[in-house]
Design brief:
The chain has helices at 97-114, 187-199, 261-270; strands at 10-11, 24-26, 28-29, 32-38, 41-43, 57-64, 67-73, 84-87, 127-128, 135-136, 143-144, 149-158, 161-167, 177-180, 203-214, 219-228, 241-248. By secondary structure, the protein is α+β, with helices and mostly antiparallel strands. Strand 3 (28-29) and strand 4 form a beta hairpin. The radius of gyration is 21 Å and the shape is globular. It starts with 9 loop residues before the first strand and ends in a 28-residue tail after the last helix.
Protein backbone atom coordinates (compact mmCIF):
# COMPACT_ATOMS: atom_id res chain seq x y z
CA UNK A 1 0.00 0.00 0.00
CA UNK A 2 1.04 3.61 -0.45
CA UNK A 3 2.37 3.96 3.10
CA UNK A 4 4.34 0.70 3.04
CA UNK A 5 7.94 1.83 2.60
CA UNK A 6 10.19 -0.30 4.85
CA UNK A 7 13.39 1.35 3.64
CA UNK A 8 12.04 4.83 4.47
CA UNK A 9 10.62 4.79 7.98
CA UNK A 10 8.05 7.54 8.53
CA UNK A 11 8.70 9.65 11.66
CA UNK A 12 6.26 12.51 12.35
CA UNK A 13 7.24 13.19 15.94
CA UNK A 14 7.22 16.91 16.74
CA UNK A 15 10.63 18.54 16.33
CA UNK A 16 11.96 22.00 15.63
CA UNK A 17 14.52 21.87 12.84
CA UNK A 18 16.16 24.19 10.38
CA UNK A 19 16.44 22.95 6.81
CA UNK A 20 19.75 21.72 5.42
CA UNK A 21 20.65 22.07 1.74
CA UNK A 22 19.72 18.46 0.99
CA UNK A 23 16.33 18.58 2.74
CA UNK A 24 13.09 18.79 0.81
CA UNK A 25 11.26 22.12 0.57
CA UNK A 26 7.65 21.56 -0.51
CA UNK A 27 5.43 24.16 -2.12
CA UNK A 28 1.67 23.74 -2.62
CA UNK A 29 -1.07 25.89 -4.10
CA UNK A 30 -4.52 24.44 -3.50
CA UNK A 31 -4.42 20.91 -5.00
CA UNK A 32 -1.21 21.41 -6.96
CA UNK A 33 2.42 20.92 -5.97
CA UNK A 34 5.76 22.08 -7.37
CA UNK A 35 7.63 19.06 -8.73
CA UNK A 36 9.35 17.47 -11.67
CA UNK A 37 7.41 14.72 -13.44
CA UNK A 38 8.72 12.56 -16.25
CA UNK A 39 7.67 9.06 -17.36
CA UNK A 40 5.72 8.56 -14.12
CA UNK A 41 8.80 9.44 -12.04
CA UNK A 42 8.70 12.40 -9.65
CA UNK A 43 11.36 14.62 -8.15
CA UNK A 44 10.63 17.08 -5.35
CA UNK A 45 12.68 20.25 -4.84
CA UNK A 46 15.45 20.43 -2.26
CA UNK A 47 16.76 23.51 -0.51
CA UNK A 48 19.96 23.68 -2.54
CA UNK A 49 17.63 24.30 -5.52
CA UNK A 50 15.74 27.01 -3.64
CA UNK A 51 18.54 29.58 -3.45
CA UNK A 52 16.19 32.38 -4.38
CA UNK A 53 13.96 31.36 -1.48
CA UNK A 54 16.72 31.09 1.11
CA UNK A 55 15.02 33.57 3.43
CA UNK A 56 11.67 31.83 3.19
CA UNK A 57 10.17 30.42 6.35
CA UNK A 58 9.88 26.65 6.37
CA UNK A 59 8.09 24.38 8.83
CA UNK A 60 9.56 20.95 9.59
CA UNK A 61 6.92 18.27 9.01
CA UNK A 62 8.44 14.78 9.22
CA UNK A 63 11.24 12.53 8.07
CA UNK A 64 11.37 9.37 6.01
CA UNK A 65 14.58 7.54 6.70
CA UNK A 66 17.35 10.13 6.41
CA UNK A 67 15.15 12.51 4.40
CA UNK A 68 13.65 15.58 6.09
CA UNK A 69 10.59 17.32 4.68
CA UNK A 70 9.68 20.99 5.20
CA UNK A 71 6.62 22.99 4.18
CA UNK A 72 7.48 26.34 2.61
CA UNK A 73 5.61 29.25 4.18
CA UNK A 74 4.70 32.76 3.06
CA UNK A 75 6.43 32.68 -0.28
CA UNK A 76 5.64 33.05 -3.95
CA UNK A 77 6.16 29.95 -6.05
CA UNK A 78 9.90 29.27 -6.48
CA UNK A 79 11.08 29.14 -10.08
CA UNK A 80 13.27 26.09 -10.72
CA UNK A 81 14.20 24.80 -14.15
CA UNK A 82 12.44 21.52 -14.86
CA UNK A 83 9.90 21.94 -12.04
CA UNK A 84 6.27 22.89 -12.49
CA UNK A 85 2.92 22.76 -10.70
CA UNK A 86 1.14 19.42 -11.04
CA UNK A 87 -2.04 17.96 -9.56
CA UNK A 88 -1.53 15.90 -6.41
CA UNK A 89 -3.64 13.20 -8.04
CA UNK A 90 -0.53 11.85 -9.75
CA UNK A 91 0.74 10.51 -6.42
CA UNK A 92 -1.75 7.63 -6.60
CA UNK A 93 0.47 6.11 -9.29
CA UNK A 94 3.79 8.01 -9.46
CA UNK A 95 7.14 6.50 -8.54
CA UNK A 96 9.01 6.23 -6.28
CA UNK A 97 6.21 5.22 -3.97
CA UNK A 98 7.88 6.49 -0.78
CA UNK A 99 8.22 9.98 -2.24
CA UNK A 100 4.59 9.95 -3.38
CA UNK A 101 3.54 9.07 0.17
CA UNK A 102 5.68 11.90 1.56
CA UNK A 103 4.18 14.39 -0.89
CA UNK A 104 0.55 13.52 -0.24
CA UNK A 105 1.10 13.49 3.52
CA UNK A 106 2.69 16.95 3.33
CA UNK A 107 -0.32 18.10 1.29
CA UNK A 108 -2.59 17.11 4.16
CA UNK A 109 -0.52 19.23 6.55
CA UNK A 110 -0.64 22.10 4.05
CA UNK A 111 -4.45 21.93 3.92
CA UNK A 112 -4.56 21.80 7.70
CA UNK A 113 -2.58 25.05 7.82
CA UNK A 114 -4.66 26.75 5.13
CA UNK A 115 -7.99 25.76 6.69
CA UNK A 116 -7.16 26.81 10.24
CA UNK A 117 -6.05 30.41 10.13
CA UNK A 118 -8.89 31.51 12.42
CA UNK A 119 -10.62 29.97 15.42
CA UNK A 120 -13.88 28.27 14.53
CA UNK A 121 -15.30 29.12 17.96
CA UNK A 122 -14.46 32.80 18.53
CA UNK A 123 -13.10 33.87 15.12
CA UNK A 124 -9.74 35.14 16.35
CA UNK A 125 -6.48 34.35 14.59
CA UNK A 126 -4.80 31.05 15.45
CA UNK A 127 -1.09 30.75 16.18
CA UNK A 128 1.18 27.77 15.69
CA UNK A 129 1.87 25.66 18.75
CA UNK A 130 5.50 25.44 19.85
CA UNK A 131 5.00 22.04 21.48
CA UNK A 132 3.05 19.92 18.99
CA UNK A 133 1.53 19.86 15.51
CA UNK A 134 -1.44 22.06 16.34
CA UNK A 135 -2.79 25.60 16.23
CA UNK A 136 -3.85 27.52 19.33
CA UNK A 137 -6.38 30.26 19.99
CA UNK A 138 -4.98 32.52 22.69
CA UNK A 139 -8.41 34.10 23.16
CA UNK A 140 -10.54 31.07 24.05
CA UNK A 141 -7.75 28.53 24.73
CA UNK A 142 -8.95 26.22 21.96
CA UNK A 143 -6.41 23.84 20.38
CA UNK A 144 -6.92 22.61 16.81
CA UNK A 145 -5.28 19.40 15.63
CA UNK A 146 -5.05 17.89 12.14
CA UNK A 147 -8.36 16.19 11.43
CA UNK A 148 -9.11 12.94 9.70
CA UNK A 149 -12.34 11.02 9.32
CA UNK A 150 -12.55 7.25 9.94
CA UNK A 151 -14.12 5.28 7.10
CA UNK A 152 -14.60 1.54 6.68
CA UNK A 153 -13.97 -0.73 3.72
CA UNK A 154 -15.90 -4.00 3.76
CA UNK A 155 -15.06 -7.05 1.68
CA UNK A 156 -18.06 -9.39 1.87
CA UNK A 157 -17.35 -13.06 1.11
CA UNK A 158 -19.72 -15.85 0.12
CA UNK A 159 -18.45 -19.28 -0.86
CA UNK A 160 -15.89 -18.52 -3.59
CA UNK A 161 -17.19 -15.04 -4.39
CA UNK A 162 -16.58 -11.47 -3.28
CA UNK A 163 -19.11 -8.61 -3.23
CA UNK A 164 -17.91 -5.46 -5.00
CA UNK A 165 -19.67 -2.20 -5.81
CA UNK A 166 -19.14 0.74 -8.15
CA UNK A 167 -19.68 4.20 -6.65
CA UNK A 168 -21.57 6.92 -8.52
CA UNK A 169 -19.38 9.65 -7.00
CA UNK A 170 -15.79 8.41 -6.79
CA UNK A 171 -13.68 5.91 -8.74
CA UNK A 172 -15.14 4.26 -11.83
CA UNK A 173 -13.63 0.92 -10.77
CA UNK A 174 -15.29 -1.72 -8.63
CA UNK A 175 -14.29 -1.62 -4.96
CA UNK A 176 -15.32 -2.94 -1.55
CA UNK A 177 -18.30 -1.31 0.16
CA UNK A 178 -17.11 1.90 1.81
CA UNK A 179 -18.57 4.51 4.13
CA UNK A 180 -17.81 6.94 6.94
CA UNK A 181 -18.23 6.04 10.58
CA UNK A 182 -21.13 7.92 12.13
CA UNK A 183 -21.48 9.28 15.67
CA UNK A 184 -22.08 6.52 18.22
CA UNK A 185 -20.98 3.65 15.97
CA UNK A 186 -18.22 1.12 16.33
CA UNK A 187 -16.31 0.20 13.18
CA UNK A 188 -18.07 -3.16 13.08
CA UNK A 189 -21.48 -1.52 13.33
CA UNK A 190 -20.53 0.76 10.45
CA UNK A 191 -19.61 -2.26 8.34
CA UNK A 192 -23.01 -3.89 8.91
CA UNK A 193 -24.92 -0.66 8.28
CA UNK A 194 -23.03 0.41 5.15
CA UNK A 195 -23.24 -3.03 3.52
CA UNK A 196 -26.98 -3.18 4.21
CA UNK A 197 -27.59 0.38 2.98
CA UNK A 198 -25.57 0.07 -0.23
CA UNK A 199 -26.39 -3.52 -1.25
CA UNK A 200 -29.28 -4.78 0.89
CA UNK A 201 -27.09 -7.64 2.14
CA UNK A 202 -26.75 -8.78 5.76
CA UNK A 203 -23.32 -9.81 7.09
CA UNK A 204 -21.81 -11.73 9.99
CA UNK A 205 -18.34 -12.68 11.31
CA UNK A 206 -16.95 -9.19 10.82
CA UNK A 207 -13.15 -9.25 11.20
CA UNK A 208 -10.49 -6.53 11.11
CA UNK A 209 -8.16 -6.71 8.10
CA UNK A 210 -5.94 -3.60 8.14
CA UNK A 211 -5.84 0.19 8.00
CA UNK A 212 -4.41 2.95 5.83
CA UNK A 213 -3.94 6.71 6.13
CA UNK A 214 -5.49 8.22 3.00
CA UNK A 215 -4.45 11.85 2.81
CA UNK A 216 -6.31 12.45 -0.45
CA UNK A 217 -9.49 12.76 1.61
CA UNK A 218 -8.21 13.41 5.15
CA UNK A 219 -9.33 9.88 5.93
CA UNK A 220 -8.14 6.87 7.86
CA UNK A 221 -9.43 3.77 6.09
CA UNK A 222 -10.20 0.71 8.24
CA UNK A 223 -10.63 -2.52 6.31
CA UNK A 224 -12.82 -5.44 7.37
CA UNK A 225 -13.88 -8.76 5.96
CA UNK A 226 -17.34 -10.17 6.57
CA UNK A 227 -19.42 -13.16 5.54
CA UNK A 228 -22.83 -13.22 3.95
CA UNK A 229 -25.63 -13.78 6.46
CA UNK A 230 -28.70 -14.98 4.58
CA UNK A 231 -29.80 -14.29 1.01
CA UNK A 232 -27.25 -13.11 -1.56
CA UNK A 233 -29.75 -10.97 -3.50
CA UNK A 234 -28.35 -7.46 -4.09
CA UNK A 235 -30.49 -4.34 -3.90
CA UNK A 236 -28.33 -1.32 -4.69
CA UNK A 237 -28.68 2.11 -3.10
CA UNK A 238 -29.36 4.03 -6.31
CA UNK A 239 -28.19 7.44 -5.11
CA UNK A 240 -24.79 6.03 -4.04
CA UNK A 241 -24.10 2.92 -6.12
CA UNK A 242 -24.40 2.46 -9.88
CA UNK A 243 -23.48 -1.24 -10.01
CA UNK A 244 -22.74 -4.17 -7.71
CA UNK A 245 -22.17 -7.89 -8.04
CA UNK A 246 -20.67 -11.12 -6.75
CA UNK A 247 -17.36 -11.96 -8.43
CA UNK A 248 -15.19 -15.06 -8.42
CA UNK A 249 -11.40 -14.80 -8.40
CA UNK A 250 -11.41 -15.46 -12.14
CA UNK A 251 -13.81 -12.68 -13.14
CA UNK A 252 -12.92 -9.79 -10.82
CA UNK A 253 -12.88 -6.63 -12.98
CA UNK A 254 -9.79 -4.39 -13.09
CA UNK A 255 -9.41 -2.39 -9.89
CA UNK A 256 -7.45 0.55 -8.50
CA UNK A 257 -4.18 -1.30 -7.92
CA UNK A 258 -2.60 -2.36 -4.64
CA UNK A 259 -1.57 1.10 -3.35
CA UNK A 260 -4.98 1.61 -1.77
CA UNK A 261 -6.34 -0.55 1.05
CA UNK A 262 -9.38 -1.48 -1.05
CA UNK A 263 -7.22 -2.54 -3.97
CA UNK A 264 -4.95 -4.49 -1.63
CA UNK A 265 -7.92 -6.40 -0.21
CA UNK A 266 -9.26 -7.24 -3.66
CA UNK A 267 -5.83 -8.41 -4.84
CA UNK A 268 -5.46 -10.58 -1.73
CA UNK A 269 -8.72 -12.34 -2.61
CA UNK A 270 -7.77 -12.60 -6.29
CA UNK A 271 -4.48 -14.32 -5.40
CA UNK A 272 -6.32 -16.92 -3.34
CA UNK A 273 -5.94 -15.52 0.16
CA UNK A 274 -8.45 -16.71 2.75
CA UNK A 275 -8.79 -13.19 4.17
CA UNK A 276 -9.79 -14.65 7.53
CA UNK A 277 -8.59 -12.95 10.70
CA UNK A 278 -6.76 -15.27 13.11
CA UNK A 279 -8.19 -13.69 16.27
CA UNK A 280 -11.39 -15.53 17.35
CA UNK A 281 -14.53 -13.46 16.87
CA UNK A 282 -15.37 -13.69 20.58
CA UNK A 283 -12.10 -12.05 21.57
CA UNK A 284 -12.14 -8.26 21.72
CA UNK A 285 -9.76 -6.88 19.11
CA UNK A 286 -7.64 -3.77 19.78
CA UNK A 287 -8.28 -0.63 17.76
CA UNK A 288 -6.08 -0.10 14.70
CA UNK A 289 -2.69 1.44 15.51
CA UNK A 290 -2.90 5.18 15.99
CA UNK A 291 -6.49 5.24 17.30
CA UNK A 292 -7.10 5.42 21.04
CA UNK A 293 -9.59 3.10 22.73
CA UNK A 294 -11.36 6.06 24.33
CA UNK A 295 -12.14 9.58 23.22
CA UNK A 296 -9.37 12.09 22.62
CA UNK A 297 -6.13 12.06 20.73
CA UNK A 298 -3.92 8.93 20.59
Amino acid sequence: MLQDNPEYKYDNSYKIKKPALNDYGLYFDDNQMLLSYNNNEILLPKFFQLAQASNTKAEYLFSMGENNFFLLEDTAMPCINGFEMKSVGIFKEAEPQWLSFAAITAWQYYRFREENKFCGKCGNKLIKSTAEKAYICTTCDRTVYPKFSPAILAVVLHEDKILLVKSKHYSHAFSPVAGFVEVGESFEQTVAREVMEETGVKVKNICYYGSQPWSFGDTIMIGYTAELDGEDTITIQADEICDAGWFTRENIPPGNGSRSLGGNMIESFRRGGTMRHEVPQAVAQPPPQGLSAVGGRP
